[in-house]
Amino acid sequence: MSSNQAAQADKKRKHSDRTIKELFTSQQKPNVSGTAPLSPSSKRPKLGSSPAEAPPTPEKAMSTASMYHFPSKRGNAPTSEVIDLGSSPDNSPARKNGVRKTTPNMAASAGPKKLMVKNFRPTRTVDPKTFLDQTWQKVDAALDVIFQQGKINFSLEELYRGVENICRQGMAVEAKKKLVAKCKTYVDGPLKQSVEEMLGRQNVDVLRATLQAWTTWNNQLGYIDWIFCYLDRSYLLPKQESLRDITVKLFRSIIFEHAKLNLRIVDGACDLIAIDRAGEDLDREMFSKAVAMFHEMQVYTQHFEPRMLEFSQTYVKESADKQSAEQSLPEYVKSAQSLMKSEIARVEVFRLDGSTKRDLLTLLEDHLISRKQTKLTNQDEFADLLEDNAVEDLERLYSLLERRKLGANLRPAFMKWIEDAGTAIVFDEKEQDGMVVKLLTMKRQLDTIWKISFHRSSALGHALREAFETFMNKTKKSGATWNTDNSKPGEMIAKYVDMLLRGGAKAIPAQLSRKTEKPADVEAEEDNEDVFFDEDTEVNNQLDQVLDLFRFVHGKAVFEAFYKKDLARRLLMSRSASADAERSMLARLKTECGAGFTANLEQMFKDIELSREEMSSYKMISEERNEKHAIDLTVNVLSASCWPTYPTVPVIIPRSIKTEIDKFEAHYKAKHSGRKLDWKHSLAHCQVKAKFPRGNKELVVSSFQAIVLLLFNGLPTDEHLNYEYLKEATGLPPPELNRTLQSLACAKLRPLTKHPKGRDINPTDTFTVNANFTDPKYRIKINTVQLKETAAENKETHERVAADRNYETQAAIVRILKARKRITHSELVAETIKVTRNRGTLDVSGIKKNIDRLIEKEFLEREDDGLYAYIA
Amino acid sequence: MKVTIKEWNAVAAWRWDMPDDDVCGICRNPYDSTCSKCKYPGDDCPLLLGECNHSFHMHCIFSWLRQEAAQEKCPMCRQPFKSKNQEAETQDATPNTSPA
Description:
heterodimer, A: mainly alpha, 5 helical Cullin repeat like, three-stranded mixed beta sheet, three-stranded antiparallel beta sheet, 13 strands, 7% strand, B: alpha+beta, Herpes Virus-1, two-stranded antiparallel sheet, 2 helices
């Protein structure tokens, strides 16, 4: 009973005796049940089954036993009536085991029988020593024949028996000793000599000789194995030895590990690899034999592998150094890859060890990648690849680096290139118009490179975006932005979007159109597999891409200003290609920048919608009143605050139009009291019917153009109107008049002729109707002047955005101070930059100026300890 | 040559019919701008013209009239403030907004 149980019993005893008894009984019970399977009752069936199986066993046992010509004492006499004790001595220890095992003790059933022994001879009296010598002589002779590779003209069986008998006589030890000694002399002698003869020659020859010797030795071992099988099995096996081990060890210790030979042999194998590396023909059979030999001798990991790796290392190091010095980056990557591939292929073809493969790979990677990292992530050559858009080369480079998880090390070079290339595009003042297209092309190329070459590595993806963000937000006061530090990309993106929305799918530049790109980059664009694109999807796609760029821009104010201006123009001139596209763009901007950003833009759409309703109700009313309208009038009424500000240009409106406009204004005022209308005639456009000497045309012109054209009504073709007269009659200020006249007399389509001819309008010029005006089309648009943004407008927009930014900055500063009450200068500047980032930040000196301005206006004050405090 | 105008697409911007430099007597913002609470001017933040010919941003005058001390008087001339009826009817945004 365990102490545990005793303790338990002790515990129980405190309560009562009975419980102890109970405890014991309850403890015994499980014991009983535990031993149950061992009880006689359950043993019985086991026993019962054995007699049934037993009868065949003795016979079987006898047949094995008979091989040893040995009768069992207790054994099954009835079956074997005659026993030949044979000639072999019977004191073999092995026999005992075998017989006893196979003799079950159930011969009781058989009755006593007489045992007859035939040919009985007393135990042989031959001295075992003499027997050994005799037998060994034969064996020795046979071995000599085998070693000399002579003809086997003796019975191997006989020899086997001899050896067996020697062993049975308990002289296995001597037999083994003799055999080993014999083998040793042979291996040390002739066999070694055959190899040593080659010492003067190449390593490979030494190896070849060794292999030759090895093969011979192996063949001879076959015989030895046969002859000494019994020795091997019965004597050596129990001692955890084997004949094969001993003989192989002999070869190894004498030939392979011979001081002179060892290196030569191993080097021979390594030389074979070197030959293969040099691109010459490799004796494949010989190499695989050598490898097999190393394996069999168990010297592979100990001798061959380290040596081979050592050689490989020097080779790989040299070739890596050489190639990295000589070759360009893509070539180097290619050769590095092919080197690794061929090395690994060799390992696999010859089934070298897994450990070799692993070590070799590590070695290769270490030398080809890790140590050559500076070469691989080299800024200049990497930049060249990016420049060439060499997707495949980059892919190879990245996979190579990624073997060592070094792919992310391309990051600095990658970012640097993007920044440089991007900055060059952004600040290329000559090709401002192509900026967005170039940026889009670049973005797409980089995206492809990222997807395919860089396997969508997240580190490099971040780098890509970061770099884009950096250069897109670089600002420089330049002529392009009228010396404001507005972001030019913001403006150009707005203009590009305008072009898309005006022109629809037709406006998509050829190099970005999916149709042209399709055949080239089918695989590249795996996520856009649709083959057919309708125009809307195409435009939407383009918008998405542009928006990708837009996302990088911090100063969204510039974009907003230009987008609004362009949108206004599109809406008022009804130049949108598709209302759906407009709306989807608006939705995109809303998700991108929030509702506050698009509130004004939405109001613009609403105004146009309202105006349309207003016009239809106005027309209905006039119809009811049976009023006749000489002119089909449409008015767009805008809420001034949501639209870009337009200057009111003074102009004398022709009487017929004036009356129509006045009628509408009266109607509007009656409907919406407390409101009045400011006419923006510079935005009006109209259709006119014109009878030219060479045919009737319908012209779509701006209001100013129409007013000028009306002045030429009914004039003979040779009557000149001079500039001064036109100026008085139209009431236009000179810049507007100049623009209008230029568009009518100096553009591609010229309904007027200027005298004298020339590009620029001078106050001394006169104008006549162009009698030869003609055009294949009936309806002609000549109001492009109105659509185009003038330099002055552009400048004005930029300056306004810049000025607005000052106000926004001031507002931000006040908000910050309201929240913080007191704040240090540097903190305030940092906070301000953070807050205004989305709309566009001022530089630090600009922020400082605005702080000063606010101090002047007494919004804040400087305190003694250098803090700013808010003045409530 | 003979030119006739067939179709004229005019553009006009509407604004409150007030003198340009006048401001709301309560918030001191221009009439064309918003009251101090609104973000977007225009229909969302209309004007209200009283019988006394003083006009304010609707939101401004309402919050004034809601105060006890105001006694529903025009803050400018202390006459009881009533919006001009005919206008209250025609202005879609403020038909029933006259404080009674």
